[in-house]
UniProtKB/TrEMBL annotation:
It comes from Nocardioides yefusunii. Keywords: Isomerase. It comes from the Bacteria. This is Alanine racemase. Its EC number is 5.1.1.1. Coiled coil: none annotated. The keyword Transmembrane does not apply. One of its GO terms (molecular function) is alanine racemase activity. The keyword NAD does not apply. Residues 15-175 form the Alanine racemase N-terminal domain. InterPro entries: Ala_racemase/Decarboxylase_C, Ala_racemase_N, PLP-binding_barrel.
C-alpha cells in the first residue's frame, strides 16, 4: 500500500520564500529523486519561486530567486524543462560521450554546461560554438574540476562560446570555507578568465555575506538543494499504514526465513520496503561514537538480532522482525505495547534523498 510524504504547504512555501529572501542569486537544485518530492514538482515550485521573486523586482542574476534551475544529470533535463522556463545548469561535468551529446536541440540555448577539464572545453565548443558553460575548479573535495594550471592553460578558449562563471563545489561545512574560496578566486582571476560570476555550494549565509563584501564586483550564485527543499523538517511528515497485525507467542515461527519470536508480542506488517528505499539501517542522524556505543549497550532486543527500524509507534522506533521486503516491512512489537489496528498510520523516519514515496501530498 502506501508510503506517503505529507507536506504542510503553507509552512513549506513560507520556508522556500525565506530562504530565497536570505539568498540573493539563489539557484535551486533539483536532482536525483527530487529530494523526495520528485523532480517535476520541484521544477514547478522553482518556477513559482522565480515568478514571486520577479514580481518583487528580484530579476538581476545576482538578485534572482531562481532564474536558473540546477539538475544533476543530462538525463534529468527532460523532466524539468517543460515545468521551469529559465536556464538549466547541469551539475555533472560535460564529457565527450553519453547523455551530454544528446541534449534536445530545443534546449540547447537554455542549458548551461559544467566543464571540468580543458580538453572538454575544446570538444564542447567544437560541437556547439555558442555553448553556455561554467568552468569547474577543483576544491578540497577532489571530485571534479581544474586546478590553477588547467585554468591558465585555457588561454583564448575561455573567450569563446559563452562563459557564464566559475563553479566551486565545496565539502559540507567543516569550519570556514572562506580561505579556500579566496584562494580559488585568486586562481581564476590570475588565469584571466573573462567572468565575474561565481557559482558556489555549501556556504553559510555568513560566509556568503563575507564573500559578497570582499568581492563586491562579483555575482554570487549559491546552489542550494537540501537546505531549500528539506530545511523545514517540521513541515514534512512521512507515514506508512498498518496492513496486518498477528499476535505471536515466544517460539512461534514467522517471516521468509522462519525465525522464531523471541518473546510474546505482535508481528506487524506495515507499508514501505526496499522498493521505497527503506533499508535495514535506520537513519539515526547521530553517528557519533558515543551514540553508537549507546545503541550497542542498550542490547535487549537488538541482542537477539533484531534491528531498529525507521517505523515509529507511539513515538518509539520499533524493531524489524526481519529485513524489509520489497514493498512492506515486518515489525516486532513486544507484549505490553499498545497494538495499532489495521489501517492505522505509523510515522517513518527516512532519508528524503534516498526514499521513493508512493504519494506526495502538499496541502
Ligand atoms: C547536489 C549539489 C548541490 C546541492 O547540494 P545540497 O547539499 O543538496 O544543497 C550543489 N552543487 C552541486 C555541484 C551538487 O552536486
Amino acid at each position: 500500500m502506501t508510503l506517503t510524504l505529507t507536506v504542510d504547504g503553507d509552512r513549506w512555501r513560507d520556508h522556500l520564500i525565506s530562504v530565497a529572501e536570505a539568498t540573493p542569486g539563489l539557484v535551486p537544485v533539483a536532482k536525483g529523486n527530487g529530494y523526495g518530492f520528485g523532480l517535476g514538482r520541484l521544477a514547478r515550485r522553482a518556477q513559482w519561486l522565480a515568478e514571486r521573486g520577479a514580481a518583487l523586482g528580484h530579476t538581476a542574476p545576482g538578485e534572482a530567486w531562481g532564474d536558473v534551475l540546477a539538475v544533476g544529470t543530462y538525463d534529468e533535463l527532460a523532466e524539468v524543462a517543460d515545468r521551469f522556463d529559465g536556464s538549466l545548469l547541469v551539475l555533472t561535468p560535460w564529457r565527450p560521450f553519453g547523455a551530454a551529446l544528446e541534449v534536445d536541440p530545443k534546449l540547447a540555448d537554455r542549458v548551461i554546461h559544467t566543464v571540468s577539464r580543458p580538453e572538454d572545453l575544446a570538444a564542447l565548443l567544437e560541437r556547439q560554438s555558442d555553448a553556455r558553460y561554467v568552468l569547474e575548479v577543483v576544491t578540497s573535495m577532489l571530485r571534479h574540476g581544474m586546478d590553477a594550471r588547467g585554468l591558465r592553460s585555457l588561454g583564448d578558449l575561455a573567450h569563446r562560446g559563452r562563459l557564464e562563471g566559475v563553479a566551486l563545489h565545496l565539502p559540507l561545512a567543516q569550519g570556514s570555507h572562506l580561505g579556500q574560496v579566496r584562494r580559488l578566486i585568486t586562481d581564476a582571476i590570475s588565469a584571466g578568465l573573462p567572468t565575474t560570476t561565481l557559482w558556489v555550494s555549501h556556504l553559510t549565509s555568513i560566509e556568503l555575506a563575507a564573500l559578497r563584501a570582499s568581492y563586491s564586483d562579483f555575482t554570487i550564485r549559491p546552489r542550494i538543494g537540501t537546505q531549500l527543499w528539506l530545511g523545514e523538517r517540521a513541515a514534512l511528515t512521512v507515514t506508512a499504514q498498518v496492513l496486518d497485525v498477528h499476535p505471536v507467542e515466544r517460539g512461534d515461527l514467522f517471516g521468509y526465513r522462519g525465525r522464531t519470536a523471541p518473546k510474546n508480542g505482535h508481528v506487524l506488517v506495515v507499508s514501505g520496503g526496499t522498493a521505497h528505499g527503506i533499508g535495514l539501517e535506520a537513519p539515526s542522524g547521530d553517528l557519533s561514537l558515543k551514540s553508537r556505543a549507546a545503541t550497542l549497550a542498550r542490547g535487549g532486543m537488538d541482542a537477539v538480532g533484531f534491528v531498529r527500524s525507521p517505523f515509529a509507534i507511539d513515538g518509539k522506533q520499533r524493531l524489524f522482525a526481519e529485513p524489509p521486503h520489497m514493498q512492506a516491512s515486518m515489525l516486532f512489537l513486544p507484549a505490553g505495547s499498545r497494538v495499532p489496528a489495521v489501517g492505522d498510520e505509523v510515522e517513518v523516519r527516512v532519508r528524503y534523498t534516498a526514499t521513493t514515496f508512493d504519494r506526495v501530498v502538499v496541502s
